[in-house]
Design goal:
7 strands; five-stranded mixed sheet; alpha+beta; Heat Shock Protein 90; transferase; 12 helices; two-stranded antiparallel ribbon; KdpD_sf; protein histidine kinase activity
């Protein structure tokens, strides 16, 4: 799989083969332009909330641009005929907006208007308002409003394009992960079936009971694999049913060892697949190394609406899923990240934010923040 920069902005144009195909030349040029725009604070801020330090730098740099514009306007004043009060201010405001964003541009527009009004619009060195000065100011703000409006459309289009690319990248990653997981499960299918037989033999008292238990567990495993392969594409199900379906092949049902808590939520098809994989992996690890490896161990799975994570868009609505194990002994964080952990972390990012895995002595506590529109039907 390509690196993150390639996934988000396309391949490096220098890596494209030399060709006379005009479409490839255009793609290379477009890739360079997108990479350039992605470095500008105004465009970066459409995808990620800037840090306070970045905001401060943007405003300071914007004021420097405005100061240069004021100096340049005074410098060329003696060479200009009457009627050009905003000659250096228009490009300063547009440049500020394009590089640093809308709010610094609006600030510079207001400063420019007051400077031009006081020094370059009759009556000079006065804030007197007459028909001439009012018309000049109205014209300035009209032009600035049009320019900034067009810039706003450009920034919005850029943000939508990048989000579409990120969504496409996530879907491609999902396909690859599903392919890897199918391979992983098929290789371990016989071993898992053998384990189910052993587990069922331990508690079955008659051959008929053994057959019934095996049939139910193998059917549950088949349903989980169907979810994985997307055979239920387009259907919706509840959060509770998805959780139970994911852990049922492991012999877990809602009761003493598994408790579920949360509002009734309907999930979309893509989130069902991701969530099933995550919960199946967590349940498997709990049986091998965590709380379910102990006789009195238990798991609580809860979900609730919550505030947006720090780096997320504050206007978006979020919920979180919490997997909490109790009753384990001596649980330690793994020294290296295996396939399962990598699978869980990568799938979790598809919900909009990274997950948190806290390996406590009494068992794992995992928190999965999720954008509501990424999981709910």
């Amino acid at each position: 799989m390509s690196n993150l920069a390639d996934e988000q902005y396309g391949p490096d144009p220098s890596s494209l083969p030399v060709t006379d195909d005009p479409n490839l030349r255009f793609a290379a040029r477009d890739g360079r332009l997108v990479r350039l725009l992605s470095q500008l604070p105004a465009f970066r801020s459409t995808l990620k909330t800037p840090e306070p330090r970045e905001i401060a730098i943007a405003y300071v740099a914007s004021l420097v641009i405005e100061a240069v514009a004021v100096w340049a306007r005074f410098a060329v004043d003696s060479y200009l005929p009457a009627g050009f009060p905003y000659l250096t201010f228009f490009p300063a405001v547009i440049l500020t907006g394009f590089v640093f964003g809308m709010l610094p541009a609006i600030l510079n527009a207001c400063i420019s208007a007051f400077v031009a009004w006081y020094f370059f619009i009759p009556p000079i060195e006065s804030f007197g308002l007459n028909a001439q000065s009012f018309t000049a100011l109205a014209f300035f703000f009209l032009v600035i409003a049009i320019d900034l409006g067009l810039l706003r459309l450009l920034l919005s289009a850029y943000a939508e394009q990048q989000r579409a690319k990120e969504d496409l990248t996530r879907h491609l990653q999902m396909q690859q992960l599903i392919s890897d997981e199918v391979d992983h499960r098929l290789k371990n299918l016989l071993a898992t079936t053998s384990g189910l037989i052993t587990l069922s033999q331990r508690y079955a008292t008659t051959p008929q009971e053994l057959g019934t238990q095996l049939r139910k567990r193998i059917q549950a495993m088949g349903h989980s694999i169907s979810l994985l392969r997307g055979s239920l594409s387009g259907e919706t199900t509840s959060m509770r049913d998805t959780i139970l379906s994911a852990v049922e092949p492991l012999g877990l049902t809602s009761g003493d060892r598994l408790s579920l808590e949360g509002p009734t939520l309907k999930l979309n098809a893509s989130s069902i697949i991701s969530l099933s994989l995550i919960l199946h992996e967590l349940g498997t690890n709990a049986f091998k190394y965590g709380a379910l490896a102990q006789e009195r161990g238990s798991i609580k799975v809860s979900w609730e609406f919550c505030e947006a994570p720090k780096q997320a868009d504050r206007e978006e609505r979020w919920l979180q899923l919490i997997w909490e194990e109790q009753g384990a002994t001596g649980v330690e964080a793994p020294t290296r990240s295996g396939f399962g952990t990598d699978l869980v972390r990568r799938l979790a990012t598809g919900f909009g934010a990274p997950c948190t895995l806290d390996y406590r002595p009494e068992g794992l506590r995992a928190v999965f923040p999720m954008r509501r529109d990424s999981v709910l039907a």
